Structure formats: structure tokens, C-alpha cells
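Preliminary data (for renewal application), adenosine-5'-triphosphate complex.
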Amino acid sequence: MINNVYYKNIYFEKGKCKYMIKLSHIKKVYDTPSGSLQALKDISLTVEDGDIYGIIGLSGAGKSTLVRCINMLERPTEGTVEIDGQDLTKMNEAQLRSVRKNIGMIFQQFNLLSSATVYENVAFPLKLSGMAKKDIEKKVMPLLKLVGLEQKARQYPSQLSGGQKQRVGIARALASDPSILLCDEATSALDPQTTQSILRLIKKINEELGITVVIITHEMQVIKDICTKVAVIDHGVIAEKGSVIEVFMNPQQAITHEFISVLLSDELPSAFRQQTVSAEPVEDGYLLLRLTFLGESADEPVIMQLIKNAPNVDVSILFGDLDQIQTVPYGRMIIGLKGDAQKVKEAEKWLGEQDVKVGVIGYVKRHDAAVD
Ligand SMILES: Nc1ncnc2c1ncn2[C@@H]1O[C@H](COP(=O)(O)OP(=O)(O)OP(=O)(O)O)[C@@H](O)[C@H]1O
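Predicted structure:
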């Protein structure tokens, strides 16, 4: 396999460290003409070996500053950055240059040399490090093969599509055998289909080469598609972090809800929209519940069982959708329960005992004049 020959890890022996990247109490203050600006305020997070760690936030939240602190392109004002147990904040520039070989980075705008061919772009960091020409060739061609560009070696960036340019960026980032790949909005300039193909490539690199990946993005779709863990950053602080599945199933903060809701088109039928929602039963109204199923429970016939268990309650499915978080099935549904208030309560209780997450929207009266 290609990584046995060309991806020998020079800095890190697996199994020796419990973590790959550990940021502790990072603060970053920029001096600006209008005064000092605190871009990061006490950020702590740990990225473990093999993670694909997503950092999501709105524009200006501090994502780029944070990712640039990981490889010390930005020096934090306070706090420590440990990679494989080494504290980068204590290093001088020469030491940092050496450690940075262990950290590849790709960018939104690809940052390729326009006057160099694809081959020369990937060879560039190797040339700089003084590698012999024949060794460079041995390294560059397998990398181009890995990213699917071996036929484009002699072309220039201007002759490539956006996705192909990012593939060159990835091959170049991998040239120094990194253990870590930092991706700063790497798919933001790409269309959705190309984004998918680049994300698949990043996942392959993570899985086959064992490279730990940190992805900075403002798109929850990217997090959902490939990340194992996520941190939501807001105004320079981490609002929420955890496994992607946990955060999707149980978002705690309003900003996380907002990011997730962009992906979820779980709108109520028009008959229920703009109706007053009450916490207490309303006469002739429905109790609306939001159900979330994960993993195997997504396949289970919970609704059929509910109908059997609560024969006197009308069950209406108002919205349903089956998706995946990476390979885990993830189902969402909005249902309306109508009937005797006590029976409806019992049906809700029964659902709460099943392998499904139940969120109560409230009691709503159907607006019969509406057309669905
Ligand atoms: N070199 C700098 N000098 C001064 N202020 C900066 C500098 N870099 C970033 N900032 C400020 O720090 C804050 C965080 O910026 P940063 O680029 O890290 O955010 P971001 O989440 O990556 O945003 P975007 O998605 O728009 O790139 C912003 O208010 C920005 O204006």
C-alpha cells in the first residue's frame, strides 16, 4: 500500500500519545487601528489521533485564527498548543519549521503557484527541504495518483477546475508525510458535487493514511458528512463540542440549533403553521411531537407499534425524513396525536420509553382552511 512506503510517520509513534493536538486556554488578541480585538477567548480542546474534527462557526467567529494557532502561523497571546506532547508555544522559529512538516494545511483559495505545473507545485516543499530530484519524483507521482491527478502532472493551475486545484493542494500538503491535515474552508469555493468528492478524498486520507484531520467550516453539511467530532465556535469561545452524533441528536446551544436547522427542512404542513402553540391541551387540538431516530432504531416500526398501543389516539405523520450521519441512519419525524387528553399523554409517555428521542413542540389546533 502506498502509505507503507511513502507515509512513514517521522515524528509520531502511534500508541505513545493519548492525543494528537491539545489546545489549552488559548487566547488571541489582535492589535488593530481601532484598539485591541480579542479573537479567541480561552479555547481548550483536544483532537485525538485519527479524529476528523470539525470546527464550525459564523464569519468572524475565530475559526481561521484558531486553526492558524494549531500550526503557530498565529502565535496565541496566551495558552499552550501541544502536538504529540510537544508544546509549540515554547518553540523558536527553526523548531517550528521542523514541527510544521508534521502538519499539512489546505486553504479555501488553494494557494497554488500559478507559474508552476501540478507536479512542480507538489514537489515545491520537497525541493525546499533539499530532497534529491529522483526521490522527489518517487514521492510526487504516488501522491498525484492518490489524489487522482496523475494525468495532469504537466498542466498548470489555470488549466484545472476548482476541485482539481484543491486535489493539488492536498497532494502538496501530504508531501512532507504529515500526521495532521488542517483544512481551512477547503471546500467553500467548490460546488456541492465537487465538495463531496473532496470530502471523500479527505476521508480516504484519514482512513488509509491514518492522518488526523481538522476541518474549519461554516457549513453543517460538511460536519455531518465526514467529521467524527465537532466544536461550535461563537465570538471566540467554544459554545459546544462533542461527537457529531451527540451534537446532532441533542444540541444544547441556540447557535448549534441554528447550524443544524439549516440542514433540516422539517416544516409543518401549512395547516399547522402560524398557529398558536400551547403547552397545555387545547380542545380539538393535536399534540405535536418531534421524533429523532438513530442507528438501528431508525428502521424500527415505532409508529406502527404506537398505533397498536394507543388505538384511541389518532396518529398523523406530518413530516418524515431518513438521512445518514456518515454511515449511521438518522431519521426525523413530526407527528400529531389527537384524542382524549389522558390517552394522548399516555401515548407520549409510551413513545418516551422507546428507543427514540421525543421532543414536544406543543398542542396546536389545525387550521382547516389551509391547503397543504
Ligand atoms: N490579522 C488580523 N488582524 C486583526 N484582526 C484580525 C486578524 N485576523 C482576524 N482578525 C479578526 O479576528 C476575528 C476572527 O477572525 P477569523 O478570521 O479568525 O474568523 P473566521 O471565523 O475564520 O471568519 P471567516 O469565516 O469570515 O474567515 C475577526 O473579528 C477578524 O476581523
